[in-house]
Design a protein that fits this description.
Length: 295
């Protein structure tokens, strides 16, 4: 009896470190933040005062929150309509049958993803520099275009951050698409070509439908990553978002509210609002792509 009891207990002892760490570093903070979001708490040592859903209602009239939400959604749209299509186009090129040095190109395009976001932001601060930056001096100047104040002009800050994301994340998303493209049977495409289908028709009616699981995965993580982006824009334009808060993201506003202004209750409400937005958008895009479609 004692031996059997030890045998049954042993697996749980081996997996317990994960659950203990999960409870301490994730479950408890998540529950505590939900509790705190219904209270007014300013400062670490202050006594929380219950205010109900007032923190959540205040978000609807908070100009900085709405500004951060608009900027983050702007970047998310850039990820969906620019970075993801660019990654798909790159993947189609990299799976071309006659492409030489395919493995080298895979390594080169994946290498930005293993670079820390802070390092990428520091590099792009030099790339976007107004007087001696790479883009102004070597791309725009030869075309006769005046120097753009990428990190000082409010209208140029978000395009600059999207361009940085294009360089940083296109390669890794292209590898995801390559894995999906290589799993599509070539016989299906050949049969469609023999039946008279054009390349566009093969791509539209065969490649894209069979690539849908990978597309859903990439789009879902693009949305989650966009709304959780913090390091790159913080280093590129500062935690306040630059001039007129033009580069302020929701995670940056959450950081400012919780760790600089010490409005812990309001910051908790911000965090749960962010989580709810991500959840709703992920469900919406999966619904659009037919994940929950009834057969």
């Amino acid at each position: 009896m004692k031996y059997n009891w030890r045998r049954r207990l042993a697996p749980y002892l081996f997996i317990s470190p994960f659950f203990v760490g999960y409870a301490i570093f994730f479950a408890y903070p998540m529950v505590w933040a939900l509790y705190l979001s219904f209270f007014k708490k300013s400062g670490v040592g202050s006594i929380p005062r219950f205010i109900g859903v007032k923190n959540y209602l205040n978000l609807l009239s908070d100009e900085l929150f709405l500004k951060a939400l608009g900027n983050t959604t702007y970047y998310a749209a850039g990820s969906i309509f620019l970075i993801v299509p660019a990654a798909l186009g790159l993947a189609l090129i990299l799976v071309a049958p006659r492409l030489r040095w395919r493995e080298l190109f895979r390594l080169l395009f994946f290498s930005p993803n293993i670079t820390a976001g802070v390092v990428v932001a520091i590099i792009f601060r030099l790339v976007f520099e107004e007087d001696y930056g790479l883009i102004n001096n070597y791309l725009l100047a030869p075309l006769g275009i005046d120097h753009v104040r990428w990190l000082r002009e409010p209208l140029a800050i978000m395009p600059a951050i999207i361009l940085m994301g294009l360089w940083h994340y296109t390669g890794v998303n292209a590898l995801y698409f390559m894995a999906g493209l290589q799993n599509i049977p070539s016989e299906v495409k050949e049969a469609a070509t023999i039946d008279g289908a054009t390349r566009w028709q093969v791509f539209r009616y065969i490649t894209l439908p069979l690539l849908r699981p990978v597309l859903i995965f990439v789009l879902t993580f693009a949305i989650i990553g966009s709304y959780n982006l913090f390091g790159e824009p913080s280093v590129l334009v500062g935690p306040e978002g630059g001039p007129r808060n033009a580069g302020l993201f929701m995670t940056m506003y959450l950081y400012l509210t919780g760790f600089r202004f010490l409005e812990l209750g309001y910051a908790s409400a911000l965090g749960y609002a962010l989580a709810l937005i991500i959840f709703v958008l992920a469900l919406l895009q999966m619904r659009i792509l037919g994940v929950f479609r009834e057969d």
